[in-house]
Structure of Peptidase inhibitor family I36:
Amino acid sequence: MRIRTMLTIAAIGSVTLAGVTAAPSLAADEPVPGPEIVSDVLTPEEEAKVHAAADPADKVDMYYKGEKVDPASDWNGADICAEVSEDGTMQCFDSDAEANKFLAANAPTAEARAGAKRALAATQKVTMVAPQEAAIQRYQDCPSSYVCLWQNSNYSGRRLQWPTYDTAKTRHLDQYSPSFRDKASSAFINRPQRGVELYDFRSGLPDPHLFLGSGYSLYSNFKNIDYTYGGSWNDRADAIKF
């Protein structure tokens, strides 16, 4: 049976429902319409296209402090890995300040460089945040024009981030060393247009996919998003189209 779950929030404002928050635009600091979530399954034709675009055998080169990341090292201790080339190459960093300093000069698009510059300027300001607000503020670690996935809920733990290109890219999360497959728990789509799709590749069943809406949209806990075959989308994603 084909199962579809759709959530549309038409009102303008800051809304939290089922773990999804309609976030303010970081550029204009104004509320925006809430995102749409679509959890469904792919057709055989869609599956074939996604699998062809996300080959897990095509490993991505990842670098940390000038050296290739050892697949057995768990990112050599780095917390953030960001894509720096359309071929998928990643650079890994210990902190947001270090990442944004590098990306401000070396990100692959003008928008990504500008977003990193703004994020770098923000990290240089001393801001006191109440402990209860700390988890909410962590999403701001994702620079403008980037798509970010975190290993843990509430935008915490190790993070992968991708810039926005003119055309969408598809990456298998098993391409990274070590693998990020079945580890994603929260996300921020920090751009005004073009949503993101996550895929779970199944054997013997149609592959589920999850569409996350654009518009500076926050997804703080994938445990609150229903999975097609029962349970939640937490630790399910095998690939991403951004």
Q: What stands out?
A: Helices lie at 44-53, 96-106, 110-123, 134-137. The longest helix spans residues 110-123. DSSP finds four helices and 16 strands in the chain. The mean pLDDT is 83.
